[in-house]
Amino acid sequence: MVYQSDNSEHLKLQERLRKEYVGKTVDELPTPAFVIDRNVFEDNCAAMIKKANEWGAQFRAHLKTHKTPEGTKLQLQTRNGLTEAVVVSTVKEAWEVFNSGLVKDGVVKDILYGLPIARNKIQALQQLRNEMAPYNGIVRLLLDHPQQVRFLEEAQRENASQRWSAFVKVNGGQNRAGVGPASEDLKVLLTTILESPAVSLHGFYAHAGNSYGSTSLSEAQSYLSSEVQMVNEAASFTLENLKGKLGSGNHSQPFVLSVGSTPTAHASGAEVREIMERVLHGKLELHAGNYPLLDLQQQHTSLVDYARVAQHVRATVVSYYPGRGKGGEDEALIDAGAIAFSKDTGPSGSFGEVIDPADPSSKLEIGEGVDIIGQHACLIAAAYPWYYIVESGGKEVVDVWVPWKGW
235-280 pLDDT, tens per residue? Predict the structure, then answer.
């Protein structure tokens, strides 16, 4: 796949969409439509940077949910501070950050590819790294197996490339990816990294995916505490067991300890502060991605309320069935289903909740528009070719964002 582009096709499509929809109301939009409130999005981004600042941590913004240049700028440049570091879920996203001018403009200087590196991704990321170098930009990798290091060494021999800056992915018990924080597997991997001419160890990275099951502040704090302990334990293990190999200096000093998810990033309190005050074997970095938009899964954690959810799906009632539902309730059919909302559910058990009309007892009319918050914004947004932007709860479309698609 050819990843590099001049971004002209993206901009042409966006300009056509803006001419078509900006100035119209949401009632005039084709449905289903994905709608984002820019002010709420911006407030969420500022709140997250403030949270990281309060902890004395660096922040790395995940772009996986919205995948847009506009959203990226709002995540990184807030009224409460700045960051220049991002994490992406696909090679396509990484390249589109560059293609959109965010690297050239100095908005983004540090891109982490957020999966353990596959052999077939190395060439494309190497090309991206070469393009970012004149702007003092860097591409970082995740590693959790010695074979990944060998792939990087093979590529280095072929291209005489510089060392890759890499995090070791730590398994915090969720068994999604990573190695145990004080395991023999970690020792073997670290030995391979520290002896390799192709890699420089940047730090340790963990993600508490199971934190989405949090239902209270204390639960989220517990997950965050566990994350910090895991990466700190991995760093301590490295310092104690591989002192001789660290002498080469092919590693960041101090290590970067990267932790987070949207629920844990929202958590704060005495337990978290206590951990922060302990001896850390590195400097802390916080990462999160869902937080600009939020959704029902996040609302169920009790760490956010409905007012902070920046997205919803606009749908249209296409038919009505009096008395057909449970207990003789009426049912309405809308023009949005499994693709429009994804099939993700959450603790509430539904696929979404109607927020407009606000009165759940009001009768819906055929042809009427309804606004619905879904369970998982990351998967919902992925289905839409563009997003309609409103402001401060308004009905008028003020912009259109076109997300990056593909892998």
Answer: 999 999 888 888 777 888 899 999 987 666 666 544 565 666 667 8
Average pLDDT over residues 109-118: 98
Alpha helices in 213-304 (DSSP H): 217-241, 243-246, 262-266, 270-277, 296-300
DSSP structure string for 41-86:
HHHHHHHHHHHHHHHT-EEEEE-TTT--HHHHHHHHEETTEE--EE
Note whether 49 and 83 are within 8 A (CB).
yes
Residues 6+ apart with CB under 8 A from 90: 406, 407
Between residues 83 and 363, which one has the greater pLDDT? 83
CA torsion 213-218-223-226 (nearest 10°) is: -160
CB 180 within 8 A of CB 187: no
Q: 250: exposed, middle or buried (C-beta count within 10 Å: 0-12, 13-18, 19+)?
A: middle
Q: What mean pLDDT do residues 312-317 have?
A: 98
Short-list 293, 261, 289, CA closest to 401: 293
C-beta atoms surrounding 15 within 10 Å: 12
pLDDT at 73: 98
The answer to whether the bond into 357 is cis (omega within 30° of 0) is yes
Distance of CA 400 to the CA centre of its chain: 21
Element (H or E) spanning 154, and its range? helix 146-159
Phi then psi for residue 299, to 5 deg, are: -65, -35
Tell me if 56 sits within 8 A of 284, measured CB to CB.
yes
How far lies 218's CA from each of 56, 222, 308, in Å? 21, 6, 20
Q: What is the mean pLDDT of the chain?
A: 90
Cα 216 from Cα 235, distance rounded (Å): 29
Q: Do residues 374 and 345 touch, judged by C-beta distance below 8 A? A: no
Report yes or no on whether pTM surpasses 0.70: yes
Count how many Cα atoms sit within 13 Å of the Cα of residue 209 in the half-sphere of its side chain.
10
- Asked if 325 and 331 count as a contact pair (C-beta separation under 8 A), the reply is yes
- Alpha carbon distance 38, 21 (integer Å): 16
Copy the structure tokens of residue 291.
Answer: 């937080």
Residue 226 has what pLDDT? 77
pLDDT in tens, 275-306: 666 678 999 999 999 999 998 888 877 778 88
